[in-house]
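Hello Y.,

Per our agreement to keep a running log of every chain we model this quarter, I'm adding this entry. I've kept the format consistent with earlier entries: sequence first, then predicted structure.
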Amino acid sequence: MCKVRRVSRKAGRAKHLFILLFAALLLPGCAGHSLPVAQQEHLVVAPTVSASPVLVARAPSFLLQGTQTPHNRIGRVEATREKGQEVVGINADIPVIYAGSQFFSTDKGTYTNLVYRVHFSATPFSLIPFYLGAGRNVGLLVILTLDKQSRPLLVTTVNTCGCYAVSIPTELLPSSFYPDHWPPAQISVYGELLPARIKSVQANEIIQVKVRADVHRVMDIRVIPRDSVHSTPVRQAEVVGLETLKRLPVNDGSVTSLYYEHWPLAGHVKGALKPWESLSLSLVSLDFFVGMDKDFGDPRAGGSRFYTSLKPWNRSASDMNDFAAYLRFNGWKL
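Predicted structure for the entry above:
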């Protein structure tokens, strides 16, 4: 019996050591970057005038780290066909912000969401630090929730896999609408510290979203004077409709979509499989394609619910495609 206990203790210690080692690898993947910030190039991507003045007027700017590397630059989604093989990728030389608007209602009112979507060519494969979300064609959403006077009340950011979702109120939203026990200054989102609220946005101001290199995590959200955008090297990004992502021109004259259109991948971004996430989280989430980037805002997308909780029993309640339900799930009282 004593011998059995000694073996069990050793096995237990080995198990705990494995867990610690895995955690040590995993945590840098959530918050790490490949170079010290001082050695990285920075770039602001700001919207240009287009045919949709409301969407452009409210469009955020993006402060990007590590832009000496193409995969850290916002790009244009493009499709080609070579020898019968279709390839969808991101052209990092041409920044584009994809935008659209949606409406939703709650018991307390009707709101407008302005949805801004950007894509990067990849989160690189890396063991040290370990990037759990390594894969191609990754994206980021910034969603502004406006009141009837078209004033931003909430800024929601989420990676297009449904990961790291967070909603930050502006000063215009009364604290009675906040979730219970909302922190006074900062909120922690899986290793990133973000402001718990931001100032209201005036006509001469713009929301700026700071994005961490490689992992494309949101690391800050702030309101800045519109003129100050040009204090950092800036590239203008055309703002085009979200619907264009489903009508990508191909070099053979045909048209295709960023998203798969047939089961089992319907609504998922082409080429965006995340092998490490599938291996480590598919059993927990009961979804082999967990971590794969998805379409957003289209209830017809079939099996690609934009769920933001890994717990299978929360899949419907946390689905951001039903934005009112998503807010209720997270305790917001709009």
